[in-house]
Amino acid sequence: MPCFLGSGSPDRTRLSRIGRCSTLERMPEPADRDLVLRTRRGEIQAFGELVRRYQSAVFNVCYRMLGERMEAEDLAQETFIRAYRRLATYDADRSFGPWVRRVATRVCLNHLDRNRPPSLELDEDRDRPLVAVGDEPEGVLAGAQASDALRRAIRELPARYRAVIELRHYQEMSYAEIAELLEIPLSDVKSHLYRARKSLARSLMGSG
Amino acid sequence: MGNHPNDSLLHAYLDEELEPGQRAELEAHLQSCRACTRDLERLRQLFTSIEGLPDRGLTRDLTPAILSALSPLPPWVPSLAIGELLGALGIVAALILGLGTSGILVGLSAAFGRIVTQLEAAGSQLALGWQAALTWLRSSSSLSTLQLPEMASAGIWATIAIAAVVLWFVGNGLVLGRVRRRS
User: What is the ipTM of this complex?
Assistant: First the structure.
């Protein structure tokens, strides 16, 4: 039976490559809220369960923002450490997953603001899209190439454009929510999104 | 909508960020404009491509490294908003009113009464001093016509002192509450 990181959470479920399943598989899982409250009472292991649930989702936020696996894993760790320290500011009645993914976006954006012009080479492994049984091999290859092209195109975007694409398309936030999180005017959100999509469309057209 | 809508309107339409009126107007235009419908379809395909980007799997469990980097949190103290604070004060007041006859509150009342009595005594001493000063000033020739205010009663002084103490507690609660929220 496959093991999915993040199962039972509102985040997308993905096949784990770690190769081991949660020990809580046959037990009813405690709600995120309970885990947060237990963490606040000093039970660090409860926070470990939250990490296990959301590490895949957080890693993917970082990977889309940065495009490098090692860097994304480091930033995913930093995200959870920062989330732990800021747990007092988190409203336990709201979902933990969206909150921690927003923290991840901010962590990555700060990292991008502080560092480097990006190198545009994608790291080691190519995208392996989730493939339905019966897909043609050519279709699989074309899908992987399209994913690579899209990741490359996202990495070519300025950091703020990447952030709005991430928040709008992957975290499904409204313009107003994005403006509040990034502390920018609503008009900037619209223009960033518009330009980012134009740029992505041009890149994808060029690669296709 | 006679003219073609600009591209940003199409983006806002797919993002579901248009006002109902704008949305209806755009949809009416799309029904009769093949060029805009084609542009919208291209944009929708781009959205589908972006959102269809597959997730990547982790190659290792990040949990041990994260947990080893954590130190115990300081005791969590929920910060109070002003409304919550006023609510709490209201509850305390209701409890005092409702339980005023209980033994505990009788004892507390006695202790409080002693404090008030002492404050009144101090106030009385102050008032006597003030009256003596007034008498002395009025007996002197140059100030005999001067109208000076009478000393307020000791009860008023006691009330002012208690109000100051209550304000000090409430004020500190509000300030510290904000500090906790900021941190």
Answer: 0.75
